[in-house]
Each structure stands twice: as C-alpha cells, then as structure tokens.
Amino acid sequence: MDEEPERTKRWEGGYERTWEILKEDESGSPKATIEDILFKAKRKRVFEHRGQVRLGMMCHLYVVVDGLRTMEDQDLKPNRLTCTLKLLEYFVEEYFDQNPISQIGIIVIKSKRAEKLTELSGNPRKHIASLKKAVDMTCHGEPSLYNSLSIALSMNQEVGLHQTLNLPAPCYWTSQPYYPEL
C-alpha cells in the first residue's frame, strides 16, 4: 500500500509541457502563438454551439387548390370544392395557431394555368376571406403541376437560412380513373 504509483492530479495533467506549444516569433514574443491558440479555441466553441441553432423556424407554405371540373362533382355535399375550401379554412386557422411567425400562400390551378388566390402572408383573416370568396369560382380545365410550382417559386425567390419553403403536392380528385397503358 505504501508503494502506490505516482499519479498526477487531473488538473495538473493539462499543464504539462505547455512550453512546447509556445513558439516565439522573429521578435522573440509568443504573442502570435497565443493568439492562434485563442482563435482555435473560439472557433471550436462556435462550431460546437452551432448545433443548437434552430434553422427553419419560419416556414413558408404554399397550398395548391385543385380548380378542375371534377371539383364540381357532388359526391360530397354540396360539392368537392366547397368541402375542400371549408377544410382549408380550418387548416389555415390551426396552422397559424401552431406556427404564428410562418406564412401561407394559396394557389389555384385550372385550365392548365396556376393563379394566385392569395399572396404569401402571415394574416389568417386575409386567407380565410379569400377562401370564402373562392367558393363561387367556376371549375374547369386540366391540371398543370409545373405552372403551380413555377408560381410558388417565383413568389418566393430568396429563402434565408432561418426559413423553409414547403409546397405539398396537390392531390387530384378525378371522376375517371387513370390507367396508363402497360
């Protein structure tokens, strides 16, 4: 028991041979080496801290509404368009309750064209008012997913690191099933 190996204390271990790290510059000063060590330590802290930064806190969401002739089908009462717009009104209210600093834009596709129903905005009342007016729109034509994507991208050219751009793909309700030829 008297012959315990000589151990250095934990706080002493970090200070061993520190003179080997320091190098003098041409004038004989270790200042450049000390500044380099401090710079590396600061850079290490910044990179470690960077993992805690939350990117994508502000979300830009574009909703594409189907305005095709099949939306006038009355399998849902009074028709598909009215039911879709009512559900979208509810979605807008819930979305802004859960994401108060985010923004929504609504795009309608019909007749192979995409039209902005509302601009990108963080005001839910503006979107709900536009959706209530859109209940009376006429539905006709064929879809154009490409045009809806190009409108959404043109409405939001620059998305910063603190923002994300979301554009869910629209689902088309068709009365006739599409079977590609195999």
UniProtKB/TrEMBL annotation:
Protein name in the entry: Ssl1-like domain-containing protein
Protein origin, superkingdom: Eukaryota
Organism: Propithecus coquereli (Coquerel's sifaka)
GO CC annotations, alphabetized: transcription factor TFIIH holo complex
GO biological process: nucleotide-excision repair; regulation of transcription by RNA polymerase II
Database matches in InterPro entries: Ssl1-like (IPR007198), vWFA_dom_sf (IPR036465)
Domain Ssl1-like: 64-163
